[in-house]
């Protein structure tokens, strides 16, 4: 494979759509050329209606058109568009496929929870020093949460749970701020999902969390006025900090959450749901802290593409 071989990876989730353009360095690690994110809330109303809202589709296609120009400017050799939880069960996903194809000239792939978990694990592990101790990777998205337990770079067990920040907000946490009863109902729902999860989260000696919920929690905890990927990557949240942040977010209005850190409105609207999920997972973890990673499923997608061409 030429050292100039460049790939474009697109991760389209329930709340955000993201682009990474990268090539492989001499050591096999990613050499990032461009990275972009748009909060499009593709999963708007999907949990209740089972279909994509026209406005959500248009926001997503608009982001795709922006990404298409970036991809063209970087002369990418290969493009892969991966969609996760929001697109799995909708009734009008043909509209989604057509819009993506028109905007990017590439077919959208809808991957299952198993592949999503595997790619998240690979991406997270690419940014840390690998040890033989059991590592748990948590990927809390808008529609689902992936839990992956591995030893070194080998996956031992994995699960994709139908709990996510957008899903909880729309199904349970209706008020602003949510009521105590709504929070209790949401916690019960998450606990039931975790109770039947085959991943032994208590076995982990290291816990790594990826995606927008946990990076936002880190930014708030650090008091960042502007988002800084360098400061967020490999930052650490103790269990007590996670619990305190979740309580704070669940008792705050969206306007108040938006002022807590460098948060876009669509992130602030659902952050309390994501924090609740991280909180509940960590109540089952024996490790005392969580490592925040900026490398995630997007990096996993790019690495997989480059590996196929090597």
Task: Characterize this entry briefly.
The protein is an alpha/beta fold and 310 residues long. Helices cover 44% and strands 22% of the residues. Strand 1 and strand 2 form a beta hairpin.
Provide the β-strand percentage band. 15-25%
Main sheet, how many strands, which sense, barrel?
6 strands, mixed
What average pLDDT do the residues reach? 93
What sequence of helices (H) and strands (E) makes up the elements? EEEHHEHEHEEEHHEHHEHHHEH
Provide an overview of this structure.
The protein has 310 residues and is of the alpha/beta class. Helices cover 44% and strands 22% of the residues. A hairpin with a 5-residue loop joins strand 2 and strand 3 (30-39). The longest helix has 20 residues, at 54-73. The radius of gyration is 18 Å and the shape is globular. 49% of the residues are buried.
Defining key terms:
single chain; 310 residues; alpha/beta; six-stranded mixed beta sheet; five-stranded mixed beta sheet; globular; GppA/Ppx_hydrolase; Ppx_GppA_N; ATPase_NBD
